[in-house]
């Protein structure tokens, strides 16, 4: 039988050239790696969050640029459309202005009963085309004088008017929409000097007589 020598314990095998204390640093290194791993993941996550924030900021900036360009384009389109309409209106106004003497001749021929036959048909066709292009005639006898649309060529006084009035239309005026291309050329009459005072006195006397009649209980019966 083999007897164990008292006082000796078995120790784990140690590789040659190494001491038993080498096993403890290896365990410590493994623990350090496990601790460092979560810290590395946190840094990587923070970096991704920072990149995401930068991407969102860049997207917001590009979106704002796109919205600004879209607004500028819409303004450009509206400006071009407005300019196109203005150019068209100016061209139409210039054309119709050149036709006004012809329309005046047609009007005079109609007043003298000379608008007959084929000339009448052509004249009416021309007037229809001008109306379709937006030409409107204005100016009537008896309307109040308006210096913005009337041009006074003759002046007189009349006892039967209470304000400056167009008493004769020498040439009709023409407009396109709200734009006047020629004012109506008219003869105007103003109230007769002193007529308003006399009229006011007459009205005052009539009112006084009516009041006196009412106060006396009306006219006496015969």
Automatic annotation (TrEMBL):
Q: Which family does it belong to?
A: Belongs to the GrpE family.
What cellular component terms from Gene Ontology apply here? cytoplasm
Q: InterPro entries in the record, alphabetically?
A: GrpE, GrpE_CC, GrpE_head
- The record's region (Disordered) falls at 1-45, 188-222
Q: Where in the cell is it found?
A: Cytoplasm
Q: What is this protein called?
A: Protein GrpE
Keyword set, alphabetical order: Chaperone, Coiled coil, Cytoplasm, Stress response
What are the GO BP annotations of this UniProt entry? protein folding
Among its keywords, does the record have Transferase? Answer: no
Q: What does this protein do?
A: Participates actively in the response to hyperosmotic and heat shock by preventing the aggregation of stress-denatured proteins, in association with DnaK and GrpE. It is the nucleotide exchange factor for DnaK and may function as a thermosensor. Unfolded proteins bind initially to DnaJ; upon interaction with the DnaJ-bound protein, DnaK hydrolyzes its bound ATP, resulting in the formation of a stable complex. GrpE releases ADP from DnaK; ATP binding to DnaK triggers the release of the substrate protein, thus completing the reaction cycle.
Parts forming coiled coils: 52-86
Q: What organism, scientifically named, is this protein from?
A: Streptomyces lasalocidi
On subunit structure and binding partners, the annotation says: Homodimer.
Keyword hit for Cell cycle: no
In its UniProt record, a GO molecular function of this protein is: adenyl-nucleotide exchange factor activity
> Which PANTHER family does this one have?
GRPE PROTEIN, GRPE PROTEIN HOMOLOG, MITOCHONDRIAL
């Amino acid at each position: 039988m083999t007897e164990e020598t008292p006082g000796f314990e078995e120790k784990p095998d140690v590789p040659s050239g190494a001491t038993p204390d080498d096993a403890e640093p290896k365990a410590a290194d493994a623990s350090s790696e496990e601790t460092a791993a979560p810290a590395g993941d946190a840094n990587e996550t923070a970096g991704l969050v920072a990149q995401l924030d930068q991407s969102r900021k860049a997207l917001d900036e590009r979106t704002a640029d796109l919205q600004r360009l879209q607004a500028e384009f819409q303004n450009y389109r509206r400006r071009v459309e407005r300019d196109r309409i203005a150019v068209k209106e100016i061209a139409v106004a210039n054309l119709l202005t050149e036709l006004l003497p012809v329309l005046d001749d047609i009007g005079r021929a109609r007043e003298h009963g000379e608008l007959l036959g084929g000339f009448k048909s052509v004249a009416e066709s021309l007037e229809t085309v001008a109306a379709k292009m937006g030409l409107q005639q204005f100016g009537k006898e008896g309307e109040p004088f308006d210096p913005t649309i009337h041009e006074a060529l003759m002046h007189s006084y009349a006892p039967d008017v209470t304000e400056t009035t167009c008493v004769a239309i020498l040439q009709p005026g023409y407009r396109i929409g709200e734009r006047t291309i020629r004012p109506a050329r008219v003869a105007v009459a103003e109230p007769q000097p002193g007529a308003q005072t006399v009229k006011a006195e007459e009205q005052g006397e009539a009112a006084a007589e009516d009041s006196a009649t009412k106060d006396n209980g009306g006219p006496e019966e015969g």
